[in-house]
Amino acid sequence: MTQARATFRFYAELNDFVAPARRSGPFECDVPPAASAKHMIEALGVPHTEVELVLVNGETVGFEHPLRDGDRVSVYPQFEAFDVSPLLRVREHALRETRFVADAHLGGLARLLRLLGFDTLFDNAFVDDAIERLSAAEHRIVLTRDRDLLKRRAITHGCYVRAMRNGEQLREVMDRLDLAGSARPFRLCLECNTPLRRVEKADVADRLPPRVNARFERFTACDGCGRVYWEGTHWMRMQSIVDAALAESVSSRGIKGRPAPPTPRPCRPPRSR
User: Fold this and answer.
1) 201 vs 51, 128, 145, 167, 219, CA distance in Å?
2) 268 part of a folded domain
3) What is the pLDDT of the chain when averaged over all its residues?
4) Which of 76, 194, 241, 267 is deepest in the core (most CB within 10 A)?
């Protein structure tokens, strides 16, 4: 029997995951018997959580669509800048849930997201199995620099973080997921992710340094870890980070360099072999 072959093309940032010789253009490769679109996409190096739209021979398909000899497969990333609602996305729900779980290498990013008000779980002790369980049970987007983690079946929403520095990571996630309009700064504890509440000075006076007690009147407190926050020099530094992040974040309509969405034919059931 002749080996089945299909032609693939990955668009925009998905090319970061494929071999250099296969980037930015179509290429052919062998397709194992009964291989699905998801199987081949991940076999070529792209985590399924990075994919928003798959076309086979110009028709929108789901991840489980079986591939056959001669198929032409186009794979697209998230489309923040375009409306693709008429098309068949590869997952039932949008990728813009604003609850996160970050892996052990992204503690700095987790704190910055909390600063901006985004519910973000993080623990240095998190192992991949725990992250997978939290993502599935609490519908959280996984933030990671581990491509293999994003290929786990139970993880349906994820974001591979390319940047290395905390500030650049924050801008990357803000831009990719169009988060600026959803930010609610100073809502969460930076240390434990618990919502903060306004408290009277008398209620926390015993926890304040003498100079703080003498100079400040407005306070918020965390019921999770007991920390108290006030608008001192540290708060001003945090405010400057917030202002910069929101000013520099690119809105969904301002993202450049992404492919325009295709105009596919209506989806139809997979063809019989």
Assistant:
1) 49, 42, 42, 33, 7
2) no
3) 86
4) 76
